[in-house]
Structures
1.
Amino acid sequence: MTQLDILIMAAGKGTRMKSRIPKVLQRLAGRPLLHHVLDQAAHLQARSAIVITGHGAAEVEAATAGAASAGRTFELEFVRQEPQLGTGHAVQQAVPHLRDGGTVVVLSGDVPLTHADTLRSLVAASAGGQLALLTVTLPDPTGYGRIVRDTHDQVQGIVEHKDATEAQRAITEVYSGIMAVPARLLRGWLARLTNHNAQGEYYLTDIVAMAVADGVPVSAHRITDALQVAGVNSPMQLAELERAHQLRQARALMEQGVRLADPARFDLRDDARTGVRGELVCGQDVEIDVNCVFTGRVELGEGVQIGANCCIANARIAAGAVIHPFTHIDGEKLGATVGERALIGPFARLRPGAQLGREVHIGNFVEVKNSTLADGAKANHLAYLGDATVGERVNYGAGSITANYDGANKHRTVIEADAHIGSNCVLVAPVTIGAGGTVGGGSTIAKSVPPGALSVARGKQIIKENWQRPAKLPKG
Ligand code: UD1
Ligand code: CA
């Protein structure tokens, strides 16, 4: 089997994106376009990948060198093309870095959705020293290079749109920008390129006519799924490919039995902050309502139900838990866990280090950060639990908060099992409420309380009978 070396063209400007971010770093499912293309190199088990950079080269290289594609087995190298004098010129820059004896697969950094199987077929078509082109038939081929064939249907060359005659412009089979070619032949042809054409560019596509002239067989591997070779040139095209990619992911989950209320309203993304891959691992009978966004690695146990409009990142949700609508869970780097049969939301917020046990209830407008809630603990309304350790079956009243930050440092609050915290309490950390203790509503508790005690810390109630409210003063 011949060795594969991948060449990825990523020097172009992407003017139509109207963005300061280089086009190949625009994100699809949270992942830069170029990284999607590098994933293809990984799937192909290439021995090397050369990325040709130009516009925003330093930024593209910095964002790509470290962000390893998972299981990357190939060597990654960057070559700069300055100025950009065409696709042929781009590939010429890479030639001195190309290894001998392999097959080169040319890809574009802005074409993210090509299937690995398609590329494998293309590579197979180039076996034995042929030039293999990936082509597609488009109802509107405007702008693309046309595949010109002779009367025996043999490929004769590629004519760029701007150089094409009226008759050639009627051809609907176009070059996708993707080819597989033996390195040895590529070298020779590139050396002979000229820029005598409508755009004054060095066209990589001119090597096709050279192959024909040299008697090297040229094959066209024609596919019908245009999405696989669709490039991103504008925000609209980026959004179209995003939807197509998300639909693919939704389908794959549904084939595993996950019940999505609407596969068109589902998103699974990489975590752009950390580069953690978007991955949704589901047990049996998981149900996900519309408009949910999953980020990073999320695990949903058997029978988990996710209500509409939830955002869930880097979290583990155990079997039977129900996440009601409009809940936001983001474990960031620490992760967040929800125990079996827990009930969360609607409108709940779980932040990094939220670790909830079995049958925990977190209700509306409750925020939990870096806190452990043991089995059966409940905080049902309008509350904050930060840096807290909460025991089993604790009831944490509406409007209560842990004052965990003294302006300089964070401190822990410990609420032992079976304690009952009334409404509107402030627990000033560090502080411990002993097991089974009761804190009266409206208390500000700054000193620890032993088990079993009632603590009340609020102004004493005053009653003045027959109290006359001030009367309004006469006007003027
Ligand atoms: C090219 C093909 C055309 C094909 C089309 C498919 C040529 C001459 N034409 O068209 O037949 O139908 O792709 O999309 O190859 N790039 C560089 N350096 C350059 C120029 C381009 O790195 O100097 C990169 C771009 O960033 C892009 C890729 O090469 O990733 C293709 O360039 P683009 O200008 O989009 O292709 P076209 O010339 O339109
Ligand atoms: Ca061009």
Note: The CA atoms of residues 184 and 366 lie 65 Å apart.
2.
Amino acid sequence: MKKIEDYLARSENQYLKLYDESIKHPEKFWTNIAETFVWKKRWDKVLNFDFDKPEFKWFINGKLNITENCLDRHLSTNPDKTAILFEPNDPNSKSEKISYKQLHSRVCRFANVLKSKNVGKGDRVCIYMPMVPELTVAVLACARIGAVHSVVFAGFSSSALSARINDANCKVLLTADGSYRGSKVIDLISIANDALLECNSIESTIILKRINSNIKLKDNQTWWHDEIAMVSNECEAEEMDSEDMLFILYTSGSTGKPKGMVHTCGGYMIYTAYTFLNVFQYKPNDIYWCTADIGWITGHSYIVYGPLLSGATSVMFEGVPSYPDFSRFWKIVEKHKITHFYTAPTAIRALAKHPVSLVENNDLSSLKVLGSVGEPINEEAWNWYDKNIGKSKCPIVDTWWQTETGGIMLSSLAGVTKDKPTFATVPMIGIQPILLDKDGKEIFENDSEGILAIKFPWPSIARTIYGDHHRYKNVYFSAYPGYYFPGDGALTDINGNFRITGRVDDVVIVSGHNLGTAPIEDAINLHENVVESAVVGYPHDIKGNALRAFVILLNDKLDLDMQKEIKDLISKTIGPIAKPDIIQIVPGLPKTRSGKIMRRILRKIASGEKENFGDISTLLNPEIVDQILLNS
Ligand code: PRX
């Protein structure tokens, strides 16, 4: 059997050579990578694609089960190696090491629980759980039996949860009685129960006892521990087609309801594993920690699948960086001798605000590689990270990618290709990024700025939006036909390194969370005293971007109660992360003659600009700009 190690780039020259091969002969290249995995049946053809439909199929008619590659495969070589190293919220609670053998057994056992609830191939299972090992077990148990997991971040509100359950028609909900987050205890089960009032498709709910509560179970609700006591820990892995659905993960769009991005088995498997090993240059005894939540794509691809496919030790942390104080991350690094640390710029900026002694009191000498993900990292944060955490000896991989791309698309390879502050730098092997000008023409010169697009498919591209292929086509393939359009702007330096300049649509990245402004406006407009609203992002020291809402009221008074009511509405409909920092009442909104809000102007006002609003002659009500400025 071929070994994936033989296709990893260990030097810049190897990267260039592999990149060249992957572009000139993509099918041959990805065949080599795919052959390093366990398949139940070999594929007939590597790739079929059509950007117009759009349709992408990888390893056609290949059969596999991703969990055999994440678990079973390692049992003959390394059964006792720690797969998951769990660090609980409370620093005085014991951490837990789960070996590959133990994880395999727990996954198989829970897979049997799901089967006992009548869950089979293709059924959707919603997972709304804290960051505890059972969450990983739940995800892999679904994959084991071919059920489609839809993980919903446990910070989302009941309405956000029910909307996602209903969109995917989930059959089973997996949740917990509560969760610990820093000094807070979150009443997860009440949120889930509220959501369930709106959901008809859920037949059973299985509840993990995490906070030892004495809640009364409702009809069709059972305890996790009772369920696993009744089944065996042996479960054959279901045979899946390479293009069968593996999971749905929701992400915000600039308009309308969240988009359930669909990822499939074969391509996602090989791409997450290959990028994990290449980007992080993980070696067998390394301890890798990605601080994301499994509720986001980063957790799916680079806490669960990428690392486990690679036989790595992946750390799962239940808590927050500020509890019991702002040295928690560094204490964990010292305690577990972390070698790879992958986090978000917003966390770095928040930590950098605190005395550096909180870092220096800990031994960080185990660290070899640092990573950044989720939003552009500014130079100051990059330098702080490099100097204080990496001690100027750890490469920093700034990884640009998306829920939709499934895996990392642009990044340096740690210690192999050069990093550069604020630049994601180079494309992954097999990825063909290009800058387009506003007319959609390719810009071939380096040192340019434009719209980022990808001109050839890669194995882990999301295949559709669940239940709405039309929207999938519209959002990602219509603005620039023949390309995948991610919605980001970018520039290149004279050497062709890429730097992401930010979103070019109405999605705002707040503390690394992707938020569409339209759903927030819809939530604000639910308030009986609100006539209309517009939400925009503006630069923020720690969060990267913060939100400002411009609101037209029925009667002109915005007192503190009403501010709170509006924020509560947003928390209830979306979640606390979507609350604006500033709510400003305005007599009107700048609108074009066709009635479209000119957000460009609001964005400038929110960023503190007082003039230079460009051409406002197409506004129906140009006088409104001065009126808004007067009160801002
Ligand atoms: O705007 C880009 C930003 O996050 C968006 C994707 O968000 P999401 O689907 O939630 O996935 C986040 C984790 C992969 C992108 O369109 N983004 C992500 N990583 C970076 C980034 N912006 C700049 N630099 C990055 N490294």
Note: The pocket of adenosine-5'-monophosphate-propyl ester is lined by residues 251, 297-298, 372-376, 398-403, 424, 486-488, 500, 503, 509, 514 (CB under 6 Å).
3.
Amino acid sequence: MSERLVVIGSQWGDEGKGKITDYFACRADMVVRYQGGNNAGHSVMFNGHKYSLQSIPSGIFNPNTVNVMGNGMVVNPESVLVELDRLHNQGVTDYQLYISDRAAMVMPWHSALDGAYEGLKGGKLIGTTKKGIGPAYSDKYSRVGLRMGDLLEPEYFAERLQAALDEKNMELKMLGLPTYDFQEVYDRYMEIAKILGPRIVDTSDLINKALLTDKKILFEGAQGMMLCIDHGTYPFVTSSTPSSASVPVGAGISPKWIDNVVGVAKAYCTRVGEGPFPTELHDEIAHEIRERGHEYGTVTGRPRRVGWFDAVVARYTSRLAGIDNWALMLFDVLSGLDKVKICTHYELDGKIIDTPPSTISKLARCKPVFIEMEGWKEDITGIKSFDELPEAAKAYVAKIEELTGVPVGVISVGPDRTQTVILSEKLKNF
Ligand code: IMP
């Protein structure tokens, strides 16, 4: 029987999922992305080279791994071609990649609209990646979206494209943006269909067949749970559900297959873009952590906001996503601090609460309740086992486990694949 592993971000994205996903992707027979699009981004370092991925799954470097872009994604085919070109130029030419015929497409007008909608918000920006992710999901749900499989049927594609342009050109005109010519778009997408066509298949069927064998299947989440359209800090969220809960829909499998979920969490917290962030730090410690953790966005280069580990968020995301183990990332970045803090609760309008409120207006009023713990000075980047950690660092891990009720199954103490300590037996065997 297959082995399944879901890796998700449990904070605001950028938790270091790239590294953990890459670690397990090396062992996986199949790697599946199930939500989001090219708003995600991570770099993988190996053999002295840096490779960056946005929408392509992390198993792309292993010729034996089947990579799947699932139906729950919004796929920008132009961006897939750019990513593939970049990989080809770096010598990655032998790979297996399939794209769901049911995946919604990000079209050129979606990024134009993303920028325009942000412009209309005046000072209240969401701070999107401007990749057109929100507008593409909106069109999917408004049922005027185009899907990857449409490219395989030129006449049907023409019909769908005309319907989409009738609506979108009107909107673009209203916003004072350039409109799109049917023939130009049609011709370009037929060229794209020639290149990507053989990769566009019924990926749900592909994954379900693999589930019935003894394959190892990794479901790779993008973004983080606090950016979830339903459960995140709405409206400062992305337009999909990064949770393990969206794997069944976004990959086209039964929910009964989901039984091993790793929640990737930084040993502290970061956030890019706007929105309340209760444990945010504005002092010298934030600067120190930002520089040591290289906390700048991979897609946009923006400096990330930095805060202490938030156990309120961790409890919330673990309960929503059924997290079995934490992968505690960038643990080495905390070395050298005199004291470290963990937020255990929030205080909202004089009351202590233990789960995030639904509105950002309330969340912005939440004051973090911290516990302070001893820091550690030792360099931990070379440790190979939990036992080698300084006592204060062990106590920090134990406190996170106690406050969240979820064991730490992985500790990451540096960017390299080898700087990963696996504590969970189940994960050791994946
Ligand atoms: P969008 O996904 O481009 O619509 O952006 C919505 C919000 O999600 C913004 O605050 C982005 O900065 C954030 N976001 C989107 N993708 C990522 C990611 O991969 N990591 C971290 N933040 C992200």
Note: Residues 348 and 362 are 7 Å apart (CA to CA).
